[in-house]
Amino acid sequence: MKTTLTVNGRSHEVDHDTRRTLLDTLRDDLDLPGTKKGCDHGQCGACTVLVNGQRVNSCLCLTAMHDGDEVTTIEGIGSPERLSALQKAFVEKDGYQCGYCTPGQIMSATAMLKEMRDGAPSYVSDDLDAAELSDAEMAERMSGNLCRCSAYPLIREAIAMAAEVEK
Amino acid sequence: MTDRFTMDEPQPRLLDETGQGVIGTPMDRPDGPQKVSGTAGYTADHPAPEGMAHGYLVRATIARGKVLKIDREGAMGLEGVLDVITDPRMTRNPAQGMAGEAPVQPADAVHYHGQPIALVVASTFEAARDAAQRLSVEYETEDAAVSPGNTRDTEVDDPETAGDFDAAWDSSEVTVDLNYTTPSHAAAAMEPHAAVAQWNGDAVELRGSLQMVRFNKKELADSLGIDASQVRILSPFVGGGFGSKLGIGPEAVAAAIASQKLGRPVRVVMTRQNVFDMILRRSETAQHVRLGATRDGRITAISHDDRVSNLDEEGFAEPVSQASQFLYGADGLSFTQTVARIAATPAGSVRAPGEAVGMVAFEAAIDELADKLGMDPLDLRLKNLPEKHPMDGRPYSARRLADCLTEGAELFGWDARWEAGSRREGDWLIGMGMSSAARSNVLVKSAARVRLTGDRAIVETDMTDIGTGSYAILNQIAAEMLGLSPDRVEVRLGDSDLPGASGSGGSFGASSAGSATFLAAKKIRAEIARKIGCSEEALTLQKGRARGDNREADLSGLVTEEIVAEAEIEGGKTAESHFSSGFGAHFAEVAVNEWTGEVRVRRMLGVMSMGRILNEKTARSQALGGMIWGIGTALTEDMQSDSRDGHVVTRDLANYHVPSHADVPGDMQVVFLEERDDWANPIQTKGIGELGISGAGAAVINAISHASGHRIYDIPALPDRVISSFGVK
Ligand code: FES
Ligand code: FES
Q1: Which domain, by its residues, includes A30?
Q2: Where are the beta strands (DSSP E) in B502-598?
Q3: Is the pLDDT of residue A75 over 60?
C-alpha cells in the first residue's frame, strides 16, 4: 500500500507492506537510519521521533496510520556540521557513551523542552500551573528513554545546558 | 615490521614528559557529532546492500531434546519467504569471550529453551517475522534440570586457600556467617545483536556488533569451516556491549550461512526477546560468606563460597569471589566454587563478572561484621588492608584504596552518619552506606599501527569502541606522542584487516590497545629523532614541530613521506611479580519508604584510583555508568526463568528493569585520585569500565540496612523484600 509522509520537510510517497512500522519505513525505505531500534516494543525510546510535533515511539506506529503526517527525525535536527544546541550539549557533556540511545534521547528532549515551554505539568510538578525545569522534572519526563550505558546524569546536564542556551 | 614488546619491567612515564598537553584532558569524543546526529553507522544502519534478504531467528520452545521436524514447506508457501535454514554449522549460543573458536554447534539437538534452531529468510523483515512466528516445529523432549537448586549435575572446585581457614575461624572472637542470593542479569545493551553478511567468492564480509574483532574473526571462520583469512569483520560502531558481544553470536553465523546458501546479502537483527533468550546471561549466585575477627576488629578468617550455573560445555563460571581474595587480609582464607549444570540460557561475562555480584554480598558481610564489632564500617576496612596479596604474597603495583576510603568519607560527609534506623523524613527512612571497590587489571596482547605524513597521523587497529571512548583516547595517545593537535589525528577501528588488538572486554581495552598505539607512535618518534639528528631522549614533539639538540623543524616539512610504524605488546614478568588492580570506594545515601518498601537513591559518590586517566571526560562517563549499574543490581535487575522449562520470563525491557532516568539521582559524583601504575603497562593505566560497578551495589544495599536497621540477603532489594526485612512491627 501507499502512504505519503513529510519527513524532515520533504514529502515522500512510500510503497509498503501493511505491517510496516514507521520506524522501519524511516530506517529502511527512506534511508534515515539515525532513528534506532532498541526493542521494537515501545519499551526503550530509542526510536523516538516527532509526529506532527509530538514525540512518539515510532516502533509502535504503523506507517499506514500516518498518511499526511509530518515526521521529524534526528537527521532533521542537525547534521555533524550543523548541530543543534541540544546536540552540541550532548557532545560537550558526554551525554552518551555508545551513542545508540542518543538520537532517541535528543528527540525526546527536544519535545520535552517544548512541553515545558507549553506549561505541561508532570507527576513530579509541585505546581501544576508552573512546572520548572528541575533535574527531577527532567528525570521524570525522560524516563521513557533508556540508556544502558547509563549516561543519565550527563544527559540531563546536557538538556539543562541546552535549555539555558535557548533561553 | 612489527615491534614486539613484553611487559617485563616497570616502565618510565614518557606521557608525563611529552608536553603536548592532550593526554588526560576532558576532550570531547571525536565521534560525538556523528553519534548525536544519527550518522554513526551501527551494524544495521548501513544502506542495505543490493538484494539484501532479512533473517529472523527461531527459538526452541523445549528445555532439552531434539528437533524432529520443521515445517519448511508450510513456511515456504508464505509470500516473500526465501528459505528456512537449519544447518549443522549454526551455533547454540555466542562464543565465550576470547574463545577464538566456534561455540557449540548442536545440529538438531536442543540444549535449552530459547536456543536458536532455524533462520527464516525472506525478502522483507515483515515476511520473515511472520513466517518465523508461524513456523511449526516438532520435538522429542528429554527431562532436564533447569534451575541450579534442583540439578544433581554439579561440579565442586577444589578450594582456593591461604593459611588455615578452619583454625582461624575456630579461634575468631567475633564471627558472621551469612548467605546471600543474586539473580541472573542481562547485559541488555541498547543495540540488539545484529549482523549483515555478504560473500564474495569464498570470502565472507560480516558487519557485526562485536567487541573483540581479532577473536571474532577466528570464531566465525571456525564456525563456518573456512580459514580466518577468508573472513573480514567490520564493527566500527557498537551500541553497547558490556560483555554480551565478546564472542561471535548466533545471528552472525546464521547470517553468513544464509548469505552463502542464497547467494545474496543477509541481515539478521535479533529481536529484544532473542537477546534475552540467546545471549549469555550473568549467572545467578548463591553465596556463603564467613568472616571472623578479633574483638578489636582485626579480620582473622575470610571464606566466600559460591554456587553459580551454566550450560554443559561452557567453560565460563562467574568468578564470584575474585575481589574477596585480595581486598582484606586474614590468617586463613578459603574460597570454593560450585558450578551447577542446567538446561538454560548459558552464562558468560556481563560487566565485571565476579565483582558485580560477589562484592555485593562480600561487602555487605563486611558491613555486618562491623556492626557486630560495634565499629564504623569505614574503620574496619581501613584497619584490614593487607600489605601484600593475601593469597599469593605479590605486592600491589599501585593501590590507593586507603586514600579512596578516607577522601571519599570526607567528601561524602560520612562522619555525620547517624545510628542505623534512626533518621526519618515523613514516611522515608534515610541511610548511608559504603563499600570498597576493586577490579583486577590485566594487559592483553594488542597491536596497532600509526602512520604519519607531515602533521597528520592515522591510528589503525581492530580495537572497538563500544561506548568506552576508544576513538578519543587512542587519538589522544597518538596526538600526545607525536606533538599534534587531536584534529590532526584520525583513528580507524573495528576492521579485522587492521592490526589485531585486545578488543573491548575486562576493562583491558584502553590499556592494551592504548599501549600498542603508544609503542607504535614511539617508534615514529625514534624515526623523527633520526631525521633531525638527535637522540630519542632529546626529542621534543609539540604543536607540529620537532626539536632536539638545537635543531628544529616543522613536521609538515620533515615528514614528507609517510612513516608507518606497527607495534605489539603483551603481558610479561610484571604480571607475575606484582598484582595490579583498580581500587576505589563507593558511598550512597538512600531513602526507604516505610510502608511501600520502595528505595530511592538520593546521591552517590565514587572515589577511584585507576592509574593514569587518559581522558577525564570519557573516564568519568564509564565510572558513572558502572555506578548506575550498581543501582540496578541493588534495586531492580532480576532476570527470572520459569522453573518448569527454564524459559526466560523477563525477556524484554518492560520486565527486566534496567535503571531509567527516574531511578538515578542527578547527584552522582566521581572523583579520580591521581595514580600511575608503572608495573601495568607503558602508559601507566588501569581498567576503568568495570571498577565503577564493583562495590557500587553493596554501597546501596548497606545504605538500605542503615536506613531501616534491617539487613537484606536476597538481592535485589525489591519492595516486598524490603518490607519483609522489617519483620513484624
Ligand atoms: S524501539 Fe521503539 S521503544 Fe524501543
Ligand atoms: S549511550 Fe549507550 S545506551 Fe545510551
Answers
A1: 2-77
A2: 540-542, 545-548, 551-554, 563-571, 581-593
A3: yes
**Cβ contacts of B237 on chain A, cutoff 8 Å:** 98-99
DSSP B310: E
From residue B293, alpha-carbon distances to B170, B259, B406 in Å are 11, 63, 22
Tally of domains in chain B: 3
Q: Extract the runs of DSSP E, i.e. beta strands, from B311-444.
A: 332-335, 337-341, 424-425, 428-440
Is B729 a residue whose pLDDT tops 70? Answer: no
Q: What is the mean pLDDT of residues B224-253?
A: 98
Residue range(s) defining the domain that contains residue B623: 351-442+577-726
Number of structural domains chain A divides into: 2
Q: Which of A27, A57, A77 is the last residue of a domain?
A: A77
- Residue B48 is predicted with a pLDDT of 85
DSSP state letter for B364: H
The verdict on A63 and A121 lying in the same domain is no
Determine, yes or no, domain membership for B149: no
- How many A from CA of B466 to the centre of ligand 2? 10
B240–A38 C-beta distance less than 8 A = no
pLDDT at B693: 97
Contact B661 A138 (CB under 8 A): yes
Minimal Cα distance from A21: which residue of B?
B126
Q: Which residues of B are catalytic?
A: 690
- Return the ligand number nearest the Cα of B467: 2
- B69-103 confidence digits (pLDDT tens): 999 999 999 999 999 999 999 999 999 999 999 99
Same domain, B586 and B631: yes
Residue B525, chain A, CB below 8 Å: the answer is: no
Q: Kindly state whether residues A59 and A98 are assigned to the same domain.
A: no
Same domain, A95 and A162: yes
The pLDDT of residue A165 is 84
pLDDT score of B47: 87
* Residue B661 in this model has a pLDDT that exceeds 90: yes
Of B45, B624, B658, the CB nearest to A153: B624
Percent of chain B scoring above 90 in pLDDT: 98
CB distance A154–B624 less than 8 Å? yes
B671 CB neighbour count, 10 Å cutoff: 17
Q: A43 CA to chain B: closest CA distance, Å?
A: 6
Give yes or no for residue B709 having a pLDDT over 60.
yes
Our measurement of the distance from residue B677's CA atom to the centroid of its chain's CA atoms, rounded to an integer in Å, reads 21
pLDDT tens for B463-485 read 999 999 999 999 999 999 999 99
* ipTM exceeding cut-off 0.95 for this assembly: yes
Residues 6-45 of A with CB under 8 A from B: 17, 19-20, 24, 27-28, 31-41, 43-44
Using the 3D structure, point to which of A42, A77, A112 is the last residue of a domain. Answer: A77
- Is the pLDDT at A17 greater than 70, yes or no? yes
Cβ of residue B34 closer than 8 Å to a chain A Cβ:
yes
Q: Is the shortest distance between the CB of A98 and ligand 2 below 6 Å?
A: yes
**With an 8 Å Cβ cutoff, are B38 and A154 in contact?**
no
The CATH number that applies at residue A11 is 3.10.20.30
Q: Where are the alpha helices (DSSP H) in B42-162?
A: 72-76, 125-134
Kindly give, in sequence order, each residue whose CB lies less than 8 Å from that of residue B198, ignoring residues fewer than 6 positions away.
Answer: B49, B204, B205, B206, B259, B265, B266
Which ligand lies nearest to the CA atom of residue A106 in the structure?
A: 2
Q: What is the pLDDT of residues B545-566, one digit of tens each?
A: 999 999 999 999 999 999 999 9
Tell me if A90 sits within 8 A of A106, measured CB to CB.
yes
Q: Which residues pair with A82 in a beta bridge?
A: A79
Q: Quick check: B125 and A151 CB within 8 A?
A: no
Residue A105 contacts B where some CB pair is shorter than 8 Å: no
Section B607-613 average pLDDT: 98
* Chain B residues within an 8 Å CB radius of A161: none
Contact A147 CB / ligand 2 (< 6 Å): yes
- The mean pLDDT value of chain B amounts to 97
Residues B604 and B701 in one domain: yes
% of chain B with per-residue pLDDT over 70: 100
For β-strands B551-554 and B563-571, DSSP reports them as unpaired
Q: Which of B571, B601, B629 is the last residue of a domain?
A: B571
Average pLDDT over residues B34-55: 96
The CB of A100 under 6 Å from ligand 1? The reply is: no
